[in-house]
Automatic annotation (TrEMBL):
Its cofactor is Zn(2+). It catalyses: 7,8-dihydroneopterin 3'-triphosphate + H2O = 6-carboxy-5,6,7,8-tetrahydropterin + triphosphate + acetaldehyde + 2 H(+). One of its GO terms (biological process) is tRNA queuosine(34) biosynthetic process. Binds 1 zinc ion per subunit. Pathway: Purine metabolism; 7-cyano-7-deazaguanine biosynthesis. Its EC number is 4.-.-.-. The keyword Lyase applies. GO terms for molecular function: 6-carboxytetrahydropterin synthase activity; metal ion binding. Transmembrane segments: none annotated. Belongs to the PTPS family. QueD subfamily. This is 6-carboxy-5,6,7,8-tetrahydropterin synthase. The lineage of its organism: Bacteria, Bacillati, Bacillota, Bacilli, Bacillales. NCBIfam families: queuosine_QueD.
Length: 145
């Protein structure tokens, strides 16, 4: 079980849900500035996804927790991040699989799913802990949907 206090995100929506998941994955950062992290290595990423909205779906959900897990954990768990060429690139820094970019890509995956739902919830925050001492918080700009 994951037990952690996460940073709060300000919003005016009536409902907010949070889904935790652990993703075991390998990556490498294809840049000399990454030092030893330019070599392939693995992490157990601790991910927290925050979704908010004013309306629920016909099940009384903002989004089913299981569906959230499936679209993120189901895609990335036990994979090499760099292999996901639909998400990451070894040529563009904006798309290297850094913690920052992993958090942004998870937000984009989630928002793409949310955009198909009639109740139109919003992904307001993605927290990604890559190691015991390093984490990133990504908050999509309002209106980027
Ligand atoms: N801003 C970023 N800096 C670094 C990233 C990153 O994604 N964003 N990534 C790495 C490496 O991938 C590495 O896996 C993590 O680095 P680091 O926190 O240094 O890991 P340590 O366990 O060695 O940390 P200690 O606190 O020294 O134990 C590097 N930088
Ligand atoms: Zn790493």
């Amino acid at each position: 079980m994951i037990q952690q206090i996460y940073p709060q995100v300000f919003h005016n929506f009536r409902y907010e849900l949070n889904k935790d998941m652990q993703i075991a994955a390998a990556h490498f950062i294809p840049h000399e500035a990454a030092g030893k992290c330019a070599n392939m290595h693995g992490h157990t990423y601790f991910v927290n996804i925050t979704v908010a909205g004013d309306e629920l779906d016909e099940s009384g959900f903002l989004i089913n927790f299981q569906q959230l897990k499936k679209i993120v954990h189901g895609k990335l768990d036990h994979t090499l991040m760099n292999d996901h060429t639909d998400l990451f690139s070894n040529a563009r820094a904006e798309d290297f699989p850094t913690t920052e970019v992993v958090a942004r890509k998870i937000a984009e995956i989630v928002q793409a799913q949310l955009d198909t739902m009639p109740n139109r919830p919003t992904c307001v925050q993605v927290f990604v802990r890559e190691s015991p001492t390093s984490y990133v918080v990504y908050r999509p700009k309002a209106g980027n949907r």
